[in-house]
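Deliverable D4.2, example record:
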Amino acid sequence: MALLVGLDLGTTSIKAILLESESGEILASASRPTPVFHPRPGWSEHDPEAIWQVCVSCLRECAGGHPVKALAIASMAEAGLPVDAHGNPLYPIITWYDRRSSPQAEQVERAVGRENLYTITGQRSSASFGLTKWLWLRENLPGAVPQTATWLPLPSYILFRLCGHQAVDYSIASRALLLDQNSLAWSSTLLDLAGLSENHLPTLAHAGTPVATLTPKAARETGLPDGVLCVLGGHDHLCASFAAGGHLPGTVVDSTGTAEAVLLVIPGFLPNPASASLGLACYAHVLPGKYVLKGGLKAAGSAIEWLARILMPESEDPDYAALEAEAWQGVGKTPGPLWLPHFLESGSPEADPFSRAALVGTHLGHTRGDFFRGLLESLSFWLRENLEKMQEIAGISVEKVVLIGGTTRLGLFCQLKADVLNRPVFLPEIPEASATGAALLAGLGCGLFRTPEDALAPVLGRRRILEPDPTRSAWYDHLYHQVYTPLYHSLRDIHHTLSQL
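Output generated by the structure prediction step:
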């Protein structure tokens, strides 16, 4: 029996799991809220030391004193920070959802060109990425630039605190908007724009690559034994997708937590300009030789929580079971209210930063269950639209849709996705998919598993299948084509006008 640790640096919480390699069972876990503070209205930052201390606490609770063989990190991908020659932070970590670097994102697109940028990186410029955050820091804190030895993505910083080495896998590096997907090397064009050199960035390698063992100091702090091997993990959505078998042919993974990602693994980089116009990203996967075509929505689970709190203001924690029970009463028979679920920009496939959420078709007879149902229906329509576009772009027919993430706890939401897609959906019984994926990568890195298939063998067999209801599918097909699909275009000009006020 060998023990592996997966550490998941999430937007909402930081989690650690202790995984038994042969059975794939999670023996212990620990979770803490991800510390965040707001120094100014509209700004969101993480204190690097606070993040580290939460990681230490989670690792000590779930794995301290156990004979752990290896660990790896899954992480939110875009957040990063500048550090000096000793690895000391020079500025807090700007969260991926902080929008202050929007002007710098526009500057990147103007300087490089949208199509050229996509040909290099597989992505459009956005305030989320590490490059735009670095440009903001360079313009607003020029004193930090001369002291900067390295720009470290968040998981690279935590890895450095654990083992003393600075490294990053290709999936996390991709979300810095500095990686050339064609060569899997740092892009000279974008480095020049940033005023950086390769020496300012961590060493590149595939996820699953062993880096170094824990430092004695990190071992003392975490309670882990000396000799634990630190292995490169990757982007949390992709680690979760790997744990769910998302790299298998004809499989799409819908990963829905705070944000939502639709992930289709493809055999090579696809620098299709049409993908750029749709807001689809294409970049390196956590498995060597594979790429992911990714659709995204920045507010999915967070939008559900927002609405639940508004609908249940008297509750400290919303009663989702009660909301679902009320919502079920109108499923497949009550039209509306329907949402345009653009709470933080449109995401794909519109790629419109000025689009906002809207609620249509409301009348005085609607209940709070109807409002909740309408949001779940609309998010399901969003998934269908993205799935259709991605199949068209990639030329791949999807045979299996796998649902993972925190919102799979909402049984109605999962069933609505099956009904709206008119196909079965699969729910792997993996309690912490991102952390599990990281732990399996750790197992590959330390030689416990020979292949990804060996790593996945114990976990892939445990799943539930939800079948679509034919009558409801016909109902939702009509709503999708006649109401949801035209909704964005009907409101586009209004939202663009509002954005200018």
